[in-house]
Queue: 4 jobs
Job 1
Amino acid sequence: MALKPCRECKKEVSTEAATCPHCGVSKPVPPSEGAQLAGVGCFILVLLAAGYCFYSVASEAPRPNDPEDRSVALVVACEQRVLARLKAPATAQFSKGVHSTQMVQSIEGGRFVVHDYVDAQNVFGAKIRTNVTCWTRYDNGVASVDSLRLE
Ligand SMILES: [Zn+2]
C-alpha cells in the first residue's frame, strides 16, 4: 500500500486509511486524480441516464395543456357520442381532412364546442350528411360531452 501526506497534518498515512492515525481527520488522503475523473465520468453517465429516462417518460405522458392533444380528445369524445346515436354507425364517415384544432372552438369556463359532420345511412338506407354540434369540457386531460345536437 502507498503512503501519502495527510491533507491536514501532512504526515505520511496509508492511501487506504479511513482516518489519519496522527491527527484523526477522516479521509486523510484525497482520491487520486484518476479516481476523481472516473467518479466524474460515472456521475455524467448517471445524469445522462436519468435525463434519458425523464425525457422518455415526459414524451410519452399525456400533455393536458397541448391544444392539439386536447382537440383530438374532444373530437374523439364527440364522435363516439354521435356513433351511439346513429341508426347505422358502421356506415358513419366523419369529416376528414379538417384539422381537429379547426373543429374545436373554445368558449368560457374550460368548455369547448366541436363542429363536425357525419355521413351515415339513415333508417331508409340513404346516405345523408348530419351536422354535429357538440358541447364539451376538458378537465385534466379527460374530454367529456355535455350535450350534442345533430341536424
Ligand atoms: Zn493527519
Note: The CA atoms of residues 87 and 122 lie 6 Å apart.
Job 2
Amino acid sequence: MKAFPTSRFSIAPMLDWTDRHYRYFARVMSENTLLYTEMVTTGAIIYGKGDYLAYNDEEHPLALQLGGSNPKDLAHCAKLAAERGYDEVNINVGCPSDRVQNGRFGACLMAEPDLVAECVDAMKQVVDIPVTVKTRIGIDEQDSYEFLTKFIDTVSAKGCSEFTIHARKAWLQGLSPKENREIPPLDYDRVYQLKRDYPHLNIAINGGITSLEQAKVHLAQLDGVMVGREAYQNPYMLAEVDQQLFGSSGPILSRDEVIEKMVPYIERHIQQGGRLNHITRHMIGLFQGLPGSRSWRRHLSENAHKTGAGIEVVRDAVASMYENAPKD
Ligand SMILES: Cc1cc2nc3c(=O)[nH]c(=O)nc-3n(C[C@H](O)[C@H](O)[C@H](O)COP(=O)(O)O)c2cc1C
C-alpha cells in the first residue's frame, strides 16, 4: 500500500500543454505526481478520427479528463478509458470558454448539479476506476458557499468522492478563459471550509500555487494540491515533489539528468517520424530562472521546428546555455 494517495499532488489538465510528451517529461521528474490529460471531449472520442486516448505506459498514474454532459456518452468514454488502462476519469466542470459553454459542458454545469450527478452515476455504473470532478467555487453571481455545497451534496450523493476545486469562480460572459484564471480572486479559505464540512470527501485545491512550500501549507488542511501553469512554465519544480510531498528517499535528478532521460524518448519519436519540437516545446522552461536560460530557450525555439532537427539541437541548446551563462 502506498503511503499517500496519488491525488496528493497532481498536474492540472491543460489544453495544448499537457499532451503525452509533456506528461512523459513530467514523469521523468516525478514518479508519484498524478498527471491529467488535456480535456478531451466525448464528441472527439466518439466521432473523431484520431486516437484521443493514446498515451505512453510510463505516464501512470494518469487521469483522463473528459468534457461532456451527456451521461450515456460520458459513460461510454469512461468505459473506453478504463479499458485502455487509465487510472481515473475526471469531468471538467470548470472551463468557462464559449466553445465549451455552447457544448453545454465545463463550468456552466455548476448550475446543473443534477445533470452532473446523473453523469457521475452513469459513469460509475460502468467503471471501477475513480470518477472525479474538477470544478470552481462558483459561477457568475452564483458564488455563495451554499451554491457550492449544493453542488457537492448533489454530485457526491451519486458516488463522486473526489473533487478538485479551482479556488476562484468563473464569469461565464465577458472574460476570456485566460482572464478567468487571473481576475476572479482566489479564495482558499472556502476550499478549506469545504473540507471541514465534508471530511469524508477527498478535496484537492487548485489555483495560483507556485511552490512546494505553498503546496505543503495546503496539504495541512486538504487531501491534494493540483498545480497548473507553474508546473508547465517552471517544470523543474517537479524534481523534488516525490521527496518533499510523498516521502521518497530517491535521488533528485539534476536538470542535465532530466535531459539525458529524455534523449531516448526524443530519439524514438524522431525515428517514428515525429518532430523534435513536439517534445522540446514542453522543455523550454526547464532552466527557468537560471543564468543562461534565455540561450536555451532561444536555441530551441529557433531550431527545434526545422525539418531534420535531431537530438543535437538539444545538446547545442545546453552548450549555448552554459556558454552564455554569466560567469562570476
Ligand atoms: C493553457 C491552459 C489550458 C487549460 N486547459 C484546461 C483543461 O483542458 N481542462 C481544465 O479543467 N482546466 C484547464 N485549464 C485550467 C487549469 O487546469 C487550472 O485549473 C488553472 O490553470 C488554475 O491553476 P494554476 O493557477 O495552477 O495554473 C487550463 C489552463 C491553461 C493555462
Note: The chain has two domains: 6-245, 255-324.
Job 3
Amino acid sequence: MSSKSETCSKCGEQSLIKGELGLRTSRDLELIMVVRKDHGVEKKVPIQPKVCGKCGFVDLFVSNPSNLKICSTDKPIDPDFKQRPILEYDF
Ligand SMILES: [Zn+2]
C-alpha cells in the first residue's frame, strides 16, 4: 500500500493528476469548513484535492487537520449563539 497516495480510491488506477492542485473561492483564498456546529465555530482550512485523470474522481483532504481541533479561544461566529459552552471533553 506504499503507492496509496498515487492511486485513485474509486477506480484504483494510478492516474492521479500530478502537481499542486488547489481549490479556492473567488473572494477568499481559503475554503470554509464548518466544524463543531454545536458550538457555532467555523474554521478555515485549505482543502486540497486529488483528482483522478482517468475517472475524474476527486478526493479532498486538509493539510493541517490539527487546526480543526477546537480550543478554548474558539468563539462562535454568531455572537447570539447560545447552545452550550465548550467543555473539557470537547478537546
Ligand atoms: Zn479514478
Note: The longest strand covers residues 47-51.
Job 4
Amino acid sequence: MNQRPKPLVELLPLVTGLLLAICVLVGIVGLTLYLDFSGERPQHEPLAELPAKPDMPISKALMDPAGMWQAPDWASVEKEPNADEIKYGRELIANTSEYLGPNGKVKKISNGLNCQNCHLQAGTVPLGNNYSAAKSTYPKVRGRSGNSEDIRLRINGCFQRSLNGEVLANDSKEMIAMVAYMNWLGQDVAQGEKPKGAGLYELPLLDRAADYIKGKTIYERQCVTCHMVDGQGVMKADSTGYTYPPLWGEHSYNQGAGLFRMSRFAGYVRANMPFGATYENPILTDEEAWDVAAYVNSLDRPARDFPNDWPDISKKPMDHPFGPYSDEFSEEQHKFGPYQPIKAAAKK
Ligand code: HEC
Ligand code: HEC
C-alpha cells in the first residue's frame, strides 16, 4: 500500500517531457498557420487563370453537345439567289455600329453596340443568344406587346431597348437584309420548332436572392480586365464600335432590354463570359452568374418608358423588374429573387 505513490514520482520527468514536446509541436503548427494566412503569401490568382486540375474540374458542359443546332455552312450562301442580301444582313449584325451607330454611315439610330455583342458570332453560337429559332417561331404572340409580333417587330425591339435607339423602317434595305440573313440561318429548322441550344441557357434558380455585393467581387475578378472598373468597356480607335462593350451607364442597353432581366443576363454570362467561355467550357458557376448579374443590373443605365408593354400584367415573367404585378411579391423580389415562391404562386 505505502509503495503506491513511488512509481508516480518516478514517472514525473517523463510526463513533463511529453507535455513539453506537445507544447513545441502546437507552437510550430500555430506559427505555420499564422504565416499562411497573415497575407505574407501572394494572393490567389483568379480562378479563370488557374490550369484545370484533372481531379478538380473547374467546369462542366452545361448541355450535351449531341444534337446541338449548328449554323449552315457560310460558304453555301453563294448558292442563294439573294446571297448579297444575306451577306449584308450578316454584316449589319456583326458591325451594327459602323452602319447604324452614333457615327453610322447609313443612319444614326443606335448606341454603338453591335447586335453581335450579345448575339455572338452573328447569332450562330449555341446558347450564345443565337437566331436559330427566329425563322421557325415568328410571328408569335408575345406577352410584352400582347400582340402577334413578326420578326421585324422583334428586331426593332432590340434596336429600341438593347441598342437604346430608334426603329428601322420595315421596307428599309437594312431590315430586309437582316431578315434574309435570319431566314437563311434557320433554313433547316422545322416550322414551330426551337432547336437544341437555341437562344440562352436557362439557369437553375437559387434558393436565395442574388447578391450584388458578392457580384461585385466576381466582377472585379472576372470582368474588369475587358469591361473596365467603370463598366464602360473599350472603344475601338476609329470609334466605329467597341472592342469591349459597356455593361452599364448611358451607352449601355436600357431598362426595357432583355439583359436587364436577371435570368437573361445570368444565362448569357454563364455560357459565354468571361469572353472565351462556352457552354462546353463555362468558367462561372450558377451562383457567380446570378450574383454578377445582380451587380451589373443594380447600376445606372438609360431609363425608357414603354407604356404599351405588358397589357396583361399577369404575363410578366418572374424576373420582370417593374411593377405592378398580379401577385403580392415586391419589385425587389421580382428583380433579384428568390424566384421559387413567385413561380410557385403563379402555378396556383
Ligand atoms: C445588349 C444585348 C443585345 C443586343 C445588343 C441585341 N440583342 Fe437581340 N436579344 C437580346 C436578348 C437578351 C434577347 C432575348 C433572348 C431570350 O429571351 O432568350 C434578344 C432577342 C432577340 C431576337 C429574338 C430571338 C428569338 O429566337 O426569339 C432577335 C430576332 C434579336 N434579338 C435581334 C437583334 C438584332 C437584330 C440586334 C441588333 C440590331 C440585337 N438583337 C441586339 C439581347 C441583345
Ligand atoms: C477577355 C475579355 C472579356 C472578359 C474578361 C469579359 N468579357 Fe464580356 N464581353 C467581351 C466581349 C469582346 C464582348 C462582345 C462579344 C462580341 O462582340 O463578340 C462581351 C460582351 C458582354 C456582354 C454583352 C454586351 C453588353 O455590352 O452588354 C455582357 C453582358 C458581358 N460581356 C458581361 C461580362 C461579364 C459579367 C463578365 C465577367 C464575368 C465579362 N463579360 C467578362 C469581353 C470580355
Note: The radius of gyration is 28 Å.
